[in-house]
Structures are given as structure tokens and as C-alpha cells.
Design a protein that fits this description.
alpha+beta; 5-stranded antiparallel sheet; 2 helices
């Protein structure tokens, strides 16, 4: 007959459940760390592909409510969940896209009926290019009231009030 004391039983139980405890306490994998970016929300990014599905919820089990067909379109991340980002477009449409469909490249879209790229960030500076509403371009830098953009190979300055893709007080 084998005699086991209470202290031995506690020790054996601890040894038996220790691997389970350690499995739950293990550090996150590289993929899990990337899912929680730690970047500020909201923030602007752009679509990485020429076809991006926007879903009603964060996962493939949710239905698609919109398909974007415009690579480089600026969008605003307003929430993160796992590998999904809730975004808002310049029209105010909100939905979820997979993080792999987004890129950090900063783009902006002309929101006024027409905008003018200028040589310097001044209202009366030499005009370089007139652009219509809906035209997108790469944001290169932003100051207090102006952003420097590249549109159709031309670089110039445009007033922030004419674009969507940069916050009013944002500078970079």
C-alpha cells in the first residue's frame, strides 16, 4: 500500500498544472504583437491594393458591404481589433478591412471643387497645377495650414482645407 501525504498531493497537482499555467502566461507571438500596433487611433493610411473588401464586421464571416477598386485611396483607421481595422473613407463610409490591405503611405484626396498646387505654401504663390475634386495624391509633408503633395508627378503645396487625409493641426 502506498501512502501519500497531503503536502505531496499538493506538490504533484502543482507539477501537473504548471505547464498549463505557463502556456497561458507565455509571451505573445510576433503576429500577436503586430496585431496590437500601439499606433495612435485615429490615424490616416491608404489602401494597398486595387481591390479591397470592406466588411460589416472584423472577420471573413461578416458580409462585404463595399469593394474599393482604387489603390492608394486615403482612409482613416478609427479602431483596431485583432488583424482587422475599422476604417472611414472620405465619404464617411465605415467598415472593416484586413490589416494586410492597408499601407502607411500617406495619401490625400481633393475635397473642394478644385484645388491648386502652389510653388510655396502661400495663398498668392505661383500656381503649378489645378486639380478637381476626387483626385488623389501622395502627402509628402504638412505644416500648420498647408500640405506638400505629389500629384501626377508634380510636387507643390495645397491648403489643408482643400484636402481629406490630414488632420487640421497635424504636422509632419
Amino acid at each position: 500500500m502506498i501512502v501519500i501525504k497531503k503536502n505531496c498531493i499538493r506538490s504533484l497537482l502543482l507539477i501537473a498544472i504548471l505547464p498549463i499555467i505557463l502556456a497561458y502566461a507565455a509571451p505573445a507571438t510576433a503576429d500577436e504583437e503586430q496585431d496590437a500596433t500601439g499606433l495612435p487611433v485615429p490615424r490616416f493610411v491608404s489602401l494597398k491594393a486595387g481591390e479591397v473588401n470592406m466588411r460589416v464586421g472584423p472577420g471573413t464571416r461578416y458580409s462585404i458591404n463595399w469593394v474599393y477598386k482604387r489603390e492608394g485611396l486615403p482612409v482613416e483607421i478609427i479602431q483596431e481589433f485583432d488583424q482587422w481595422r475599422e476604417i472611414r473613407d472620405s465619404e464617411g463610409t465605415i467598415g472593416w478591412v484586413h490589416k494586410l490591405m492597408l499601407q502607411a503611405k500617406r495619401m490625400a484626396i481633393i475635397k473642394s471643387s478644385t484645388g491648386t498646387l502652389r510653388h510655396t505654401p502661400e495663398e498668392h504663390a505661383k500656381p503649378l497645377l489645378r486639380v478637381e475634386s476626387g483626385v488623389t495624391g501622395r502627402l509628402l509633408e504638412c505644416e500648420r495650414d498647408w500640405c506638400r503633395m505629389q500629384i501626377a508627378g508634380r510636387k507643390g503645396w495645397i491648403e489643408k482645407k482643400h484636402i481629406w487625409g490630414a488632420y487640421s493641426k497635424e504636422e509632419f
